[in-house]
Amino acid sequence: MAMDNRNGEGGVVPFRTDRFFSVSEKWYFSTREGFDSGPYANKDRAAEGLRRFLKVAQLLPSGGQIGTMMRAHRVY
């Protein structure tokens, strides 16, 4: 993980982790809100799942609906 500020950021660099992780050869992604989605067959599929998740999240009005959307997106 890069230890530099992102473009346009200043100040102390916050702790960052990779959004993707694997467990027993299955892949998952994490969100800042603490939501984990998966399993996916491989990291590329997890990345596609994250892109879809972010597209849907951008369509939601701000407020309490993000939790409902995240629970609906969970893959078992």
From TrEMBL:
Source organism, top-level taxon? Bacteria
One Pfam family hit: DUF6316
Matching entries from InterPro entries are given as: DUF6316 (IPR045630)
Provide the DUF6316 domain boundaries.
6-58
Tell me what this protein is called: DUF6316 domain-containing protein
In its UniProt entry, the species of origin is given as Allohahella marinimesophila
